[in-house]
Amino acid sequence: EAAVTQSPRNKVTVTGGNVTLSCRQTNSHNYMYWYRQDTGHGLRLIHYSYGAGNLQIGDVPDGYKATRTTQEDFFLLLELASPSQTSLYFCASSYRGTEVFFGKGTRLTVV
Amino acid sequence: AQKVTQTQTSISVVEKTTVTMDCVYETRDSSYFLFWYKQTASGEIVFLIRQDSYKKENATVGHYSLNFQKPKSSIGLIITATQIEDSAVYFCAMREVMSNYNVLYFGSGTKLTVEP
Asked: For residue range A42-71, what is the model confidence (pLDDT) as tens digits?
């Protein structure tokens, strides 16, 4: 079973604050993704990557940056957090042609 | 544009009955993959079942099966002999074969409640 670990699991920050969400996968998957989940919207893709140094823009990228530092590590950065970014964030990974495996999620609250 | 649509927001069934959850998708690709995922009460998202567009036979895994109707761009999830533990949110997802990044597009989810 693929392992995708997210940290922190919960985070509260203030408006305008700086937040980094971390994700590590230990299965040598090429692809990694950041999704956000909001009621009524399901899972929406923020950024994704194929390998270290590669970044692709998803469907809802505004206000987010991402960085893939290694094959294993993918970070999501919110440099000026806003209340609209309060959400449940999921990191996921996959190898081409297989199903996507998800982390347990990070609940972010921006007050 | 919404690629995957789940119109049923919530469904409630009695234990041991059969339930069907609907999903329609949009794609211009001739080849694609369709998935169903389950999100448990703890928030964990797990893969359930997959249908490849070129396969005519409906996929089946345990008490999950699919009703794939390609002309209607529809992929329904059927759960037979439902159990209390099947209560969860179910997401339909699609990946286009021509996608270079294995990106999954998700529907908004259907909340299933199984009652005793």
From this structure: 899 999 999 999 999 998 999 999 999 999
The nearest CA of chain A is from the CA of B50 a distance in Å of 8
Kindly report, residue by residue over A82-93, the tens digit of the pLDDT. 999 999 999 999
Over residues A70-89, the mean pLDDT reads 96
Q: Residue B16: how many CB atoms within 10 A of its CB?
A: 11
Inter-chain contact A97–B102, Cβ cutoff 8 Å? Answer: yes
**Contacts B6 to A, Cβ<8 Å:** 42
Q: Are A23 and A6 in contact (CB under 8 A)?
A: yes
Q: What is the 3-state secondary structure (H, E, C) of chain B?
A: CCCEECCCCEEEEECCCCEEECCEECCCCCCEEEEEEEECCCCCEEEEEEEECCCCCCCEECCEEEEEEHHHCEEEEEECCCCHHHCEEEEEEEEECCCCCCCCEECCCEEEEEEC
Hey, which residues does A73 pair with through a beta bridge? A24
